[in-house]
From TrEMBL:
The keyword Iron-sulfur applies. Residues 3-79 form the 2Fe-2S ferredoxin-type domain. Pfam families: Fer2, Fer2_2. Keywords: 2Fe-2S, Iron, Iron-sulfur, Metal-binding, Oxidoreductase, Ubiquinone. Coiled coil: none annotated. InterPro entries: 2Fe-2S-bd, 2Fe-2S-bd_dom_sf, 2Fe-2S_ferredoxin-like_sf, 2Fe-2S_ferredoxin-type, 2Fe2S_fd_BS, Beta-grasp_dom_sf, Diverse_Oxidoreductases. It comes from the Bacteria. This is (2Fe-2S)-binding protein.
Amino acid sequence: TTPTQKLLVNGKDFTLDADPNMPVLWALRDILGFTGTKFGCGAGLCGACTIHVDGSPMRGCLTTLKQVQGKQVTTIEGLEAQKLKQAWLTHNVPQCGYCQAGQLMSAAALLKTTATPTDAQIDDAMSGNICRCGTYPRIKAAIKSVSE
Ligand code: FES
């Protein structure tokens, strides 16, 4: 029999029959239907799968169910950063859009710890999120527009 795993996502408890070593990304997308979090590379290189674990940005493709037992997982569906999301729209950030959930999760995590990030802090926090459309200047402008 498959072991039972508990998962707390966006404030709701879920119980699933899954291997404890399953990546959280798989459980979110394929079992629970939280498809806002994207699969890009599956190897920790692109940031499309970025989620928050107890408020910190993590790679959903490299984080296992076992590692998040008893912790709070937040996905783009549960992200409450309204000002940031509005700035994304105002600055027309997305092009194809595929990487943008991950971009928003990283940006929101940065602004939670650093209300007024410098350019270097933005570059550092966002360096793990790749965008093939090259929306980086708009991402930066959107982040700066909500920093206090
Ligand atoms: Fe996880 Fe690319 S899918 S970093």
